[in-house]
Design a protein that fits this description.
Chain lengths: ~550, ~550
């Protein structure tokens, strides 16, 4: 046996600029690797791969293929354990059905409606004009001379570009984000919170909120065995949390939201959950999602105080996921930031409680998911840890700069007196008013269906109705090795083309079943959608009665 | 003691939409938390935080502050172990000096020059017009009607938008990236590699190359103790690798590049390194950086064949970091992709070797770092693992969509006959020709300085010269608890304002010292920069002689 050198390789040899020393023939003696006979090796730069050669390669592939290095058995078991239902099996199935539709395969519907994800623009929502004008100006600064762009947009674009290396969106920024944008975020927080001070130094721009949440969790997790870090999360939760916890091999500590009381958070339940967890891990982190995803509740000021007090008392690091802060619809509900309440509770709290809160360009009225913009404000971080956090973020260099620019417009929109103000407000209010209408309509429609109960959609952009599952359906689901609500959602998808996410992907009390559906489709379309869900549900109940 | 409820909290109570149940007073008995006396708590929506109140809060902070939850002792030890020299202590110091300059503090220089990072636009390189036109059109589609944008740019923008949900950059894309862009990437790879087939299904768009590399490593790492995954990396390396390995608690297995032979890669050294590693871990991954960062060598075809054969023989998963594929300057050097050579070695290799290769929008001639665009092509992945990889990526939803659009233009630039072709080629060649000139100039200038030796900069965008350190300097560095080359680089920064990264941040053979400097500054500026480094070096040698 001798070492294999391809024809092309032999021809190439080592040129003057070659940067590889002799391969040490003696060390390689005994190595196998003769090329299978009959396979033409194209020469560099000349040969093209004919389709015959491709076919031949594929044919040999089947024979030659040997055991893989990376398999389900050898892979990272924590990654294997990750589940992310929002883009999980149901979304995968939706993709397959779409392909079938494109091939002309007949279905009882003509399109798949992806109500599984809060993706506003995909559902036809138009971008906020001002935001896109500013980002376009930053992208192609020649437009700064164009009379078709308003001055207030140009002013913001110039300011952002001045914060960029070489005045270009193409330069890396500081890992924490562009300074002037962090200043704008701080001003926004001060305005939002009635003047509670915010320090730009505590602001970190992120690649969507997900990136910030995962980074904070990453830095928090430590210990082994019973001293492994426990992370308290609501059930139902947004599955980014369970996924990050799994990736980090931390311990997921569930506390249950109270469905009977409009998905409210009860401090007694936090305490129960914490006390149990202390028996098997070191609970160190408490995650809150407000307004709730998938559950849509908006926390009262009193509840937030209780939670902060609990975290303070129990020495828990607080994570407040507040990406739906602009999405509050129900009368009597109001968004209160954890930061604001923390400060109002006095310095014993505001100087001590370690709190990270998160916001995003993806939700609200702008729905700019694709920009992957976001920020986090982190309070009372130990100065040493601040250095560690910046170091961790610096490995990924910086968040996408056009996402940073988009974030800037969310926190620094046109103000009264500016040229773009009226159009901006019109666009913003149109989106939010429509969402409020759709939230009410969805709740009402679901609650008219026998076997469906839906709590008020106080905020966010989803309904999470509870569905009654007949025992025959549960049995059939089990026979298919599926969670009963997964079985339900798969049937719904197959029969109507509507893609929603089963409650089991978010977590729910045992024996209860739900699904999450976004209310983002345009109002007429949403109405039809809900009617279809209703019809499907009635037939489902009938079939499995 | 009784439970603390702020004035504002008492006033607010629980409204009709309140979503928090009674906090269970009995459970909270015994909790402390009375607000410190004399601190005014502003009421919701009315009070502003006066500066006096702020000062008072700060003052009490010092008294009230108690032990943190998150400290250097309690944090994730793997994150603590991460080092990322490119944005490490030296970049931090540079930032401090910049602040001092802004304050008017006198220094022997007027500006800090950040030659520590490959950040083209920050160094004054202009963006490629066509790329920015397409991204601007995608951002603000009203511009599709503007006569000031060329038709070929509009055509590409329309195609990208058609691939986006709701025809908007603001929609999430598939986690693997927009289909038509992955198709363009596949076509690019086929053209680049002389017709070797590429399947869009094997392409994953990423948030810069870093994100792709970290994701693949994440999925690969498993085992504990002696069966922990070993990851072979070149020394010197780009510190993303050591950082990711540390974060994942994998085992870093060093193989040394041969400085005496122009930083070449010797398969005998790979074998030595692997055999040693087998004694303490399970080496499963081999990382290659070609063209080299920080070392600038370009691998010969022969060397790549040797490496592939070695990986095949030893069952190693190959990671080929090819982000500098457009940055090849030396005569006689040429970029060969691992993918292409793999196919030319025949199906025994091309059907078996598991290979992930990475590219980016950040380097090359475009230097669009801020867009965080990139892709990876992953070959011979087990189908189950493909599912696992997509699942892992889906937790972060999708790469930034404007970065995906930028990547599309890199792989699908104007072609002869198109309106923008001549300007595009002029801009591209101007950047690359300048880089080639600067590569040669830098090598020549360094090699004229006594005590500095610099290998040819065959590719990439850095020089990594070796510096002679007098023993007195080494002693003084040790007295300051610094690596000798860190000491050198800190002095260089303090005396000249030039920020470079010490070799110890990349790894180097014991007893050798280097620094990495980017050649991106404009040619006149680079010349002055190199003269300054030379003067500093001469004085340094003199001082510590």
């Amino acid at each position: 046996m001798h070492r294999f050198v391809s024809a092309a390789g032999r021809a190439a040899g080592r040129g003057p600029g070659s940067c590889c020393r002799g391969a040490g023939e003696e060390a390689l003696r005994g190595a196998v690797g003769r090329p299978p006979r009959g396979v033409r090796l194209p020469r560099e730069g000349t040969a093209r791969w004919s389709s015959a050669a491709k076919a031949s390669a594929v044919k040999i592939s089947e024979k030659a293929s040997r055991e893989k290095i990376l398999t389900l058995e050898s892979m990272n078991p924590q990654v294997k354990a990750v589940e992310y239902a929002v883009r999980g099996p149901i979304a995968h199935k939706a993709g397959e059905i779409e392909k079938e539709l494109r091939k002309g395969i007949k279905k009882p519907f003509t399109e798949v409606i992806k109500a599984n994800i809060g993706d506003a623009h995909a559902m036809g929502q138009r971008p906020i004009t001002f935001l896109r004008q500013v980002v376009a100006l930053c992208t192609y600064p020649n437009l700064l001379d164009s009379p078709s762009f308003p001055e207030d947009a140009k002013k913001r674009a110039r300011r952002i570009l001045q914060g960029c290396g070489g005045n270009s969106l193409g330069a890396y920024t500081a890992s924490q984000g562009i300074n002037c944008i962090r200043e704008d975020v701080a001003s926004y927080i001060e305005r939002r919170d009635g003047g509670v001070p915010a320090d730009p130094d505590n602001i970190y721009l992120t690649t969507g909120a997900s990136d910030g949440i995962a980074s904070i969790l990453k830095i928090l997790v430590s210990g082994g065995g019973k001293s492994r870090t426990g992370v308290m999360i609501p059930i139902p939760q947004y599955p980014l949390y369970s996924a990050a916890i799994s990736e980090l091999d931390a311990i997921q500590v569930n506390y249950y939201l109270d469905e009977e009381n409009c998905w409210s958070l009860d401090v007694n339940e936090l305490r129960r959950s914490l006390n149990e967890a202390k028996g098997y891990c070191n609970p160190k982190v408490l995650c809150i999602i407000n307004p709730g995803n998938p559950t849509g509740q908006v926390q009262s000021r009193k509840c937030i105080e209780d939670v902060i007090h609990f975290a303070w008392e129990e020495k828990l690091f607080l994570l407040a996921d507040e990406v739906y802060q602009d999405n509050v619809y129900s009368e009597g509900c109001q968004f209160h930031s954890f930061k604001k309440i923390l400060y109002e509770m006095g310095p014993e709290y505001s100087n001590n409680v370690e709190l990270a809160s998160f916001h995003s360009t993806s939700k609200g009225y702008m729905g700019e998911c694709g920009y992957r913009g976001g920020y986090m404000e982190v309070l009372n971080l130990h100065p040493d840890i601040k250095g560690q956090l910046v170091k961790l973020l610096s490995v990924r260099l910086c968040p996408p700069v056009s996402g940073q620019a988009a974030m800037d417009i969310v926190v620094n929109p046109p103000v009264p007196g500016e040229e773009s103000y009226s159009q901006f407000i019109k666009e913003k209010e149109s989106v939010l008013n429509n969402l409020a209408k759709k939230a009410k309509m969805t709740e009402d429609m679901f609650n008219k269906v026998p076997g469906i109960h839906c709590n008020p959609l106080q905020g966010a952009m989803y309904a999470f109705p509870r569905i009654f599952m007949p025992s025959k359906a549960i049995e059939e689901a089990k026979a298919h090795k599926m969670a009963p609500d997964m079985f339900y959602c798969m049937k719904l998808l197959e029969e109507t083309g509507i893609c929603v996410v089963p409650g089991s992907g978010f977590g729910q009390r045992e024996g209860t079943y739900h699904f999450r559906i976004t209310i983002l489709p345009q109002i007429d379309k949403l109405k039809i959608l809900l009617e279809k869900v209703k019809d499907f549900h009635m037939k489902f109940l009938e079939k499995y009665a």
